[in-house]
Write a structure and sequence with these properties.
Blueprint: H1 3-12, H2 19-26, H3 28-49, H4 58-81, E1 85-88, H5 93-106, E2 110-115, E3 118-122, E4 134-141, E5 144-151, H6 164-186
Antiparallel strand pairs: 1-5, 2-3, 3-4, 4-5
């Protein structure tokens, strides 16, 4: 993650996907359904231009409308998944790094701190896990921790992770809060 992507992520509260292909993979389902919705009007336009004009059947209009609505729903879902969970913390950076590394070890994340304030990891679960893999991003900024886990855009397109993305985020947030409680009791 570049410094600009980091700053924009902190500013917007959304993960900034690097490059065209990561965005294309993440948003492929809404784009594909939009393509399907536009197929019927394009076919009607082709027939109109070739002189074989036929009006839209009412069923075709409903299909187009339903698929367009599904496309918007899929876009909203994928856009929402880019939002970071933000956790306020009093833990210092060194303690935060230990917490992140412990969670990474427990959940078998393969990652590293790519800069002082950015941890990026991926998972490589087995075929029967229900997921092709996840991409976990953790940003540290001024007493806040930004946590995001999405289906890995470098793997096959996946919309569902069978709860693995939620588990990644919830486990890290719980460990941060538990460590904060322990530190409060000790101090």
């Amino acid at each position: 993650m570049t410094k600009d992507q980091y700053n924009r992520s902190i500013q917007t509260g959304e993960l900034q996907l690097p490059g065209f292909w990561a965005k294309a993979t993440h948003f492929s389902l809404p784009v594909f359904s939009l393509f399907v919705a536009m197929l019927l009007p394009v076919l009607h336009l082709y027939h109109f231009l070739s002189g074989e004009s036929a009006p839209f059947a009412s069923g075709e209009v409903w299909i187009i409308c339903i698929v367009l609505l599904l496309s918007l729903l899929f876009f909203w879902m994928q856009k929402r998944r880019l939002k970071f969970r933000v956790v306020q913390t009093r833990l210092n950076a060194a303690t935060m790094k230990l917490v992140i590394e412990n969670v990474a070890k427990a959940l078998e994340w393969k990652g590293t701190f790519t800069s002082e304030n950015v941890y990026e990891a991926k998972t490589h679960p087995g075929f029967f896990s229900g997921s092709w893999g996840e991409q976990i991003t953790v940003l540290l900024a001024d007493g806040r921790v930004f946590v995001n886990s999405i289906c890995d855009p470098d793997q096959k397109t996946s919309v569902f992770s069978n709860g693995r993305n939620r588990e990644n985020g919830n486990t890290l947030v719980k460990c941060i809060k538990d460590t904060e409680k322990v530190n409060t009791v000790i101090n």
